[in-house]
Design a protein that fits this description.
- Strand 12 and strand 13 form a beta hairpin.
- Helix 1 crosses helix 2 and helix 11 crosses helix 13.
- This protein is of the alpha/beta class and 457 residues long.
């Protein structure tokens, strides 16, 4: 059984007095149903009543009345299970097939708050738009689910000793080179296997990268086959074009011209929006980063797109771990800048609390003929913190220094392949003068620990 940290959120949700019906959001195949049915329900409840609307779409009729006191007896009838609040979990899966179900959640919250009810599904936003239903604002709460993070990947591999080490390591303590090298090997492995549960499971069972690649191929085809379900809204070939183009544009401002210069950008923009709603892509928006909140200064026409999962992306790009030397050569990482940005994108999302919006940001200098760009801008407490990603152990930080000179912030982060460090550094410019700040440099395997390690600032 693969540990998912979302289980801690679910356990807290179960006992919380302010609990509301829970909607789980995330792409297909990231493990939503497995987590709820095979782990959470088994550990925390005596029984579960599960309705899968993809298998049984006609059961949506049960929810037409929106009255929990009428719905529950019908659920008991079709499941042959007595539903007792606190002892039985009601799990409504693939609810995008039956968006009418979402309208009843308000009444479960208001009239039957003691019942534990969870709904999950892919393309929920799209289903709501197409069917003109709305989610009852203020009467539900959300949990976002991503592919396995690197730390979850370590746990799945049984590397609990390494996991404990990085979760407890403190700034100023010695970091043994032998542990660093092993962790970097595992980071490279994670880049190819990725975090899709099926891919990780098959690797655990077979230790075969070839079998992993077969799973990746199956998942990519599954996602693209899904596109045909929504061709009434937008041609599925547009969705396929965008989906296949994103891996080739990682690390760069997304360009519709690179997708297909013959198709209107408006049509391709609609395809991007749908893929974002399906959670198969991640969006990193441009922000001016002059103050909080970061989302107040975004440029809607200026953004980067990243695939859902780094292992799937490697497969789409034709990168195969079987082509690399054994043991894995870390020189691979140093030659894949955009690929490392994708890694950081995934792990920055993964380290957020499960109920947080997954918005990410970057910065570019907005003057003409300027090429200064900072890969990520994050919020730490009440501060704005820039993040630079360097694929190797070295690399200049010209853009980061320019940003710090202009904004005068006091903390910056670098993710790279080197040992961790925390130093005071200076930026200098003939016009902007000198600015001193702290630079926290962390190897890729410590990305999920960046907030904890920033507390030393």
């Amino acid at each position: 059984m693969i540990y998912r940290k979302n289980i801690e959120f679910l356990k807290d949700w179960k006992v919380r007095v302010t609990r509301k019906p829970l909607i789980i959001r995330g792409a297909r195949q990231v493990g939503k149903s497995y987590l709820i049915e095979k782990i959470f329900a088994k550990e925390e409840f005596e029984n579960i009543v599960k309705i899968d609307f993809e298998k049984n779409p006609d059961l949506a009729e049960i929810f037409i009345s929106k009255d929990p006191h009428k719905i529950i007896p019908l659920l008991e009838s079709v499941s042959n299970t007595k539903i007792i609040a606190g002892k039985v979990l009601v799990f409504l899966d693939e609810v995008q097939i039956a968006p009418i179900v979402l309208g009843s959640l308000r009444y479960f919250y208001e009239e039957y708050p003691e019942l534990h009810i969870i709904v999950a599904g892919s393309l929920l936003d799209f289903a709501l738009t197409e069917n003109q239903f709305s989610i009852p604002v203020g009467r539900v709460e959300y949990m976002f689910m991503e592919p396995l993070s690197f730390e979850e990947f370590l746990s799945a591999l049984g590397k609990d000793g390494l996991l404990d080490f990085i979760r407890n390591w403190q700034i100023g303590e010695t970091f043994p080179t032998i542990i660093h090298n092993e962790l970097m090997q595992l980071v490279t492995q994670y880049m190819f296997i990725g975090g899709m549960p099926e891919a990780v499971n098959v690797y655990l069972q077979t230790k075969s990268f070839l079998e992993v690649e077969r799973i990746h191929q199956s998942l990519v085809l599954t996602y693209m086959d899904d596109f045909s379900k929504y061709k009434n809204t937008i041609p599925d070939e547009y969705l396929r074009m965008v989906y296949q183009s994103v891996p080739q544009q990682i690390g760069s401002k997304f360009s519709y011209v690179q997708v297909n210069r013959e198709i209107r950008s408006r049509n391709l923009s609609q395809a991007v929006d749908l893929l974002l709603k399906a959670s198969t892509l991640s969006k990193v928006s441009h922000t001016s980063a002059n103050g909080l909140p970061l989302g107040a200064e975004i440029k809607n026409n200026k953004y980067k797109l990243y695939p859902l999962d780094i292992g799937l992306c490697a497969h789409q790009l034709g990168l195969s771990i079987t082509d690399l030397p054994s043991p894995l050569n870390n020189d691979f990482i140093s030659s894949k800048g955009g690929f490392c940005e994708l890694l950081v994108t995934e792990l920055l999302k993964a380290e957020l609390p499960a109920h947080y919006n997954r918005s990410l940001y970057y910065w570019t200098r907005e003057e003409n003929n300027s090429n200064a760009e900072v890969d990520f801008i994050v919020q730490y407490r009440d501060k704005i913190v820039p993040i630079e990603v360097k694929a190797g152990v070295t690399g200049t930080l010209k853009s980061l220094h320019r940003f710090m000179l202009e904004k005068k912030y006091d903390l910056a982060i670098r993710f790279n392949a080197d040992l961790p460090s925390f130093v005071e550094t200076q930026s200098k410019d003939s016009k902007l003068g000198t600015h001193t700040f702290k630079l926290l440099s962390l190897p890729f395997y410590l990305i999920e620990q960046w907030r904890r390690l920033c507390s030393h600032h």
